[in-house]
Amino acid sequence: MVASTPGGRVMSNVLVRYHALLREAVEIVRAERAAGPPPVAFDLPEPDERLAAFYGVSDMSLTPLEERAGRRLFMLNLMHNPRTRTTKTPASLLMVARAAAHVRRTGERLLIVTPTSGNKGTALRDAVARAYEHGLATPDELRVVIVVPEQSRDKLRACPLSADSALHAANPIALARVDSPGDVKPLSRGAVETYGASILANTGFRLWYTLDLDNYRVADAARAFAEAELMPITAGSRPRVHAHAVSSAYGLLGYHLGHRVLTERRHPLPVPAWHPGFFLVQQLSTPDMVLSLTKGGTSRSLLPRYRAEADLWRQSADPAFPEVTADPAEEIDPTFYTSAPPTSPQINGLIGRWGGGGVVVSRHECLRHYDDVRVLVGRAGVSLPEDPSVIREWSLVKAFTGALVGMERGLLDPGVDVVVHASGFYSDQVLPPLGVQDSTPVGGEAELVKLLMATAAA
Q: Could you tell me which Pfam families the record lists for this protein (predicted)?
């Protein structure tokens, strides 16, 4: 269903609306992965009334905002689930639906395991809670353990799984003491690969490590499908660039997969006349995708040299990096924790072919543009707080700041349409934080395996 609201045109329940197209995306991915095994339970179950209700928070909307210096701004809102406020919802719903279908088909129980800096885990926990609520699975059949670096403690959100003691025990949160936030990835994968068979034999629960690009790429293909209905790319369209705050750019790669479905497969939607460009927005602590794109490598030695002035650092040599920052290694948001992502070569190739670019922003720049961003997103029905210090998820503000900075510095050409992907925003007032007592500290693989075994055996 397409509805018009003060927040733009809304495409309701995209996972049902585009089910046939998402299956086409699965087939493309399956062909690409022919040499290796697909993710667990990769087939998408057919939506029935119960599954459609489960998918009911997978809305997307597109809102025209304003024209500025010859560039038109739009917002693609991917944050419609009120219990997560993150674009990770559709992928999490698809994964949990696939998991529940696997349980029904095989009788085998699944324990989902994923590393996360916050949002992927919040969305997966919410999806598991929704599966219980809508009768897709029970805690005896399907559970989830998320592994979070302790540096991301403030990103964790309360949800129905944390509100109920029995559900929390079946779906614990491992708060990992790691040197670098990205270390939760090899920690989790190693535990699953080394001990998964033993845990399956002893408990009947198969461990499913879900941090696989294709688990997200398929769901994010729906972004291209929604755009094709709400703002199709025709031969007469203005040049278009999609701006996105990224860690590994899973969302943009998903959009590209959806674009391939629209151009390579038979379907009822308008076929795009061309591919839009991509514009990457990152932060100084993890600028590797922009570095790779603009400098050809990810070494921090490639960053422009900052000079200290009073309590700030400044540079003017490279417009793709902040002119002013409080710290040349500043972390605005721990969600964006990935260093040297393996997705960079593919993104670089897409930008090299279709255009776009990238920019790194600082908190100083986000705050300088904050009032402007607040007005812009307000036109799309998103209310940012007056006080930015209460924000816990910065991707929405970062993405719009990057777009505005990109326009100011000529990184985005005049005459383009800039579609900003609104992939996440919340504060403690919007989404209550997880209680300190609701996570389990783990100090390494042995402690994580002990937690996984106890969870599967309970």
A: DUF6002
DSSP code per residue over 70-88: TEEEEEEE----TTT-BTH
Q: Left if phi > 0, otherwise alpha if psi is -120 to 50, otherwise beta: which for 205?
A: beta
Specify the pTM: 0.96
Extents of the domains making up the chain: 60-83+215-427, 85-214+432-457
Q: Is beta strand 324-325 parallel, antiparallel or unpaired with respect to 426-427?
A: unpaired
- Return d(Cα 72, Cα 417) in angstroms, integer: 5
Fold of 60-83+215-427: Rossmann fold (3.40.50)
Choose the weakest-confidence range: 38-42, 326-330, 366-370, 434-438: 38-42
How many other β-carbons are positioned within 10 Å of the β-carbon of residue 361? 31
In this prediction, residues 323-352 reach a mean pLDDT of 94
Any long-range contacts for 64-70 (C-beta under 8 Å, 24+ apart)? 64/8, 65/376, 65/379, 65/380, 66/376, 66/379, 68/407, 69/407, 69/414, 70/414, 70/415
